[in-house]
Amino acid sequence: MDQEINLQARVDEINALPLLQAIQAILDLTPNLTTFLSPNGQRLVSHPKFTGTADLNNLATFYIRCGSRCTEEHAPLKTRLDYLALDPLFEAFYERTETMLREAEESGNLKERYQEFEGGCCAHCSGHPAAVIPAGFVDGESLFFEMDEFERFWGDAESTEDRYWRDLGTNENRENKKASKEQVEDAIRRGFV
Question: Which of 20, 86, 137, 141 is the most exposed place for a label (fewest CB within 10 A)?
């Protein structure tokens, strides 16, 4: 990587990539990220091969979106498994920055707290990364499948979780089923892609 590339610019580039390329780019980027706080408590990341910083919440929002896109775009099974490697990394980023925030507040080093979330509903309900990642709400997001797809891979096997939602385009109730990592690995061994 060119030393002159800004990290936030790279994150913005990743946001525009097709799903498989985006997941690979996030996988390539995240192991070398360092988390820290701005003086007012904004969660930031830096990377040794890039200049500047990037907003952790911005990157995490895209990471969460990629998990949902795995279902929407019927991502290959291997891509869904690859994505799982990101879950513990992002959980660790938020654990570290939450500890930093708590310590900064306790020591009085945090002057004016960065307003991380502004919205009409709670941070969990709106899907804010600082709320849903530490709570485990997005763990295994890439392992949700549409009903017919789940049945094609695993027949009438039990799912680990079901999710119901209303499709606003068709006004129909929809269901997604979540497979386990082991179920996905088994489907790959049986020749499914």
Answer: 137
Q: State the Cα–Cα distance between residues 5 and 125, nearest whole angstrom.
A: 35
Domain-embedded: residue 118: no
Domain contains 2: no
The reply to whether 121 falls in a domain is no
Q: Among 71, 89, 74, which Cα is nearest to 27's?
A: 89
In a domain, 12, yes or no: yes
Question: Distance between CA 165 and CA 68 in Å, rounded?
Answer: 13
For residue range 36-67, list pLDDT tens digits in order: 999 889 999 999 999 999 999 999 999 999 99
The whole domain housing 178 covers 7-111+127-189
Query: If you search the block for the tokens 């049986």, which residue do you land on?
Result: 190
Full-model pTM: 0.89
Examine the pLDDT at 167 and tell me if it is beyond 60.
yes
2 — pLDDT class (breaks 50, 70, 90): very low
Q: Average pLDDT for residues 75-89, to the nearest whole number? A: 97
